[in-house]
Amino acid sequence: MQKSILRQYEILRPEGIVCHTFWHGPDSDIYNDLYVNNHRDNDVRMLFGDYFDQLLIQFYKEFETGDSIIYLGKKRAGLPT
User: Fold this and answer.
1) Containing domain of residue 27, as a range?
2) Over the stretch 3-54, which tens digit does the pLDDT of each residue have?
3) Can you give the pTM of this predicted structure?
4) From the CB of residue 48, how many other CB atoms can be counted at a distance below 10 Å?
């Protein structure tokens, strides 16, 4: 995932915005025969923190209250690509 985030940083224009959603939780799950890697909000902040300034991180309901996280970040200026 870190390589993907770096690549997004590289190709975005200055002050570009990223938007990602994640399943919220401490572990991984199998859902309808799919492997699902859950994330905690602090983990999401750390994933994007070197490259993006956080605009929003919020829990929301996909199936159950608080089961998902949305992250919005703005490309941080001045970092090497």
Assistant:
1) 2-75
2) 999 999 999 999 999 999 999 998 888 888 989 889 999 999 999 999 999 9
3) 0.87
4) 22
CA-CA-CA-CA torsion sign (4, 28, 74, 49): negative
Asked if residue 80 is part of any domain, the answer here is: no
Q: How many domains is the chain built from?
A: 1
Tell whether 66 is covered by a domain: yes
Is residue 81 one of the residues assigned to a domain?
no
**Are 39 and 45 within 8 A, CB to CB?**
no
